[in-house]
Amino acid sequence: MAEKKLMKGNEAIAEAAVRAGCRFYAGYPITPQNEIPEYMSWRLAEVGGHFVQSESEVAAINMVFGSAGAGGRAMTSSSSPGISLKQEGISYICGAEIPCVIINMVRSGPGLGGIQPAQCDYFQATKGGGHGDYRMLVYAPSSVQECVDLMYTSFDKAEKYRLPVMILGDGMLGQIMEAVSLPPMRDLNTIPKKKWATTGEGFGDTRRIINSLYIVPDELEAMNIKLQNIYDSMAVNETLVEEYLVDDADIILTAYGTVGRIAKSAVDILREQGVKAGLIRPITVYPFPTASFQKAASGKAKEFLAIELSMGQYIEDVKLSVEGKKPVRFFGRSGGNIMSPEDIVAFVTKENK
Amino acid sequence: MEKLIVAGFGGQGVLSLGQMIAYAAMYEDKAVTWLPSYGPEMRGGTANCSVIVDDVSVASPIIANPDCLIAMNKPSLDKFVDKVKKGGLILVNSSLISDKVARDDVTIIYIDANEIAHKIGNDKASNLVVLGVYIKASGLFEKDVMLSTIAKVFAAKPKFIPSNQAAFLAGYEM
Amino acid sequence: MSIVFEKTSFLTDTSMHYCPGCTHGIAHRLVAEALEELGVKGHVVGVAPVGCAVFAYNYFNCDMQQAAHGRAPAVATGIKLTDPDNIVFAYQGDGDLASIGIAEIIHAATRGTNITVIFINNAIYGMTGGQMAPTTLIGQKATTCVYGRNAETNGNPIKVCELLATLTGPSYIERVSLGDVKSVKQAKKAVLKAFQNQIDGKGFSFVEMLSSCPTNWHMTPTQATSFVSNEMQNMFPLGVFKEVE
Lengths: 353, 174, 245
Prior knowledge:
heterotrimer; B: alpha/beta; globular; C: alpha/beta; Rossmann fold; two-stranded antiparallel sheet; 9 strands
């Protein structure tokens, strides 16, 4: 096994991206993800890549558009207000079917909001975000190691489906330090060539055009159907979930990202107290692990508790998956406040009395 | 499992104190999380970090009730003193905190950390003095583990290794 | 029989959608001829804007990307840094470049990114139907300034070459006109230089072309070219604004 390194989530994501073959990064400073551009600024230079501190979030995502459209492995990162600004570009990227990776280390909103951890961009990340009918593959890692592992394969997934992959973290995940094993440096020659990329050789019949403009309604509808088919196949092949002590659980706690691991500790405490609790932690929040919820809802579970650092976004997907078979209750904090495992336990035991 | 909160002014080395424990945990093949406060509060106000060390894995990095609080200044003590769990440990930097802790259900150690650091000629190392006291009191790691951790962490700046090890030992042997 | 004249191979056979009398066709041709003459076939990526030239990807016979409104310089930056050996150009209109994309063009210029930007200034939003552009002349009528542009209520036109020439980054900035044959010949020289600079690694090169829009100006093509050569040139003087040897 590779030697372990103690790394912040932000730095680990940056290093994993480089090792995955990322050779272009553009971004704009915003707390709490500044370690990513800072790391990329010197690290990409070491491996012959390019870093641009762009004039704006908008420019950054469009630089990624250009670089990834030319066939490179390109990414950007930001936090909530910055991701809002990138939405135009993300929509174009989806329309033009360009694979790339976007990191969102979520902070609390709305507006300028605060800089402390939150999950309030759930709808934006999982339901489209910008204009038009599109989705992304959205990973929600809960640990620094999971950041590294998901980041490392995210370019492969993006290229397989020709769409952007979002890594949805939060300020906590970006700042936390944990010991990680880093994967080996990817040999760029092993990355499949992209016939559609504008590598400059195109001429006449071999021209490549990166474009999201479809003036003829039938052609645009066909394009949208094609995208939906991609999302359907992604749901079959890419859905990831962690289930913990679910089979005999009376109450299923469910949360994603860092809150997922806080909820896991709550499950352990509840079990010690004799409450049969379990956890469903989506690792992909789009596609959503609906099957895990359906199975639990049809089984022994008496109720679900959706736990999130937002005011009732994640719970909507939980309810859609549970399909009314069992009650789904809500426990959330917001504004940058974070619940402790003990807070969750107190909520569960109080509500159950 | 050991849950520790280290808190103080920005600039007192509270984050690096916590990191030193995190590095030691990693070198000892333990699971560890180090979670800092961040943002404007770092600039002049209080900074803190939560460190959890466990044998296999750490789920929640959030600490409601720490086993140990290291308070390097008065606001930090006030903020966290009541959260330390019964039977826990509170280390108080008495160089900056004149109050006595009004709890009788925890172990309290007062450390004149700034003065000790000054005496050994390393004013900046009061955090490592406190680290020494903490390691001795908690028994979390062997002394030699910490000495080698300090050496590894400062490997790029070897001239700082002896003085920082000396600060650690001054606390450990207090 | 010998061939005495041929369409440049850097334009496709697709019929252009531009209005009669529009100078986009000339501008396209100048760019395409320059690329052909410089022998860079197989190493070119162009970036189309939003606006009348949005379909430029159908006309230039090379790899193309179509950018969001105003973002062509950012997209071109990403392409160029990914394949530095390719010749990368952005082709943009005045609303795209001087209004919604003013930040992107200024920062690509100040970074000195080694790309070539062709800026079509026809003082109007063409594709959307004749609204006021950032370069619309004082007094000139548009659908959003029906009594003519008034500095007090509509602000003043932006002179992009003069603005960019204040920056250290660019290597070459010239304004040319497509209003008459002599000017078009000069425009060709400017385009050639702007691409040659990129080949030579000199950095950011920029050619503004004063262009006509008979449809939205409500003029005949000849009235329109006359407007370019007179009114527009009075406001936007021709010449080289910056050239680093």
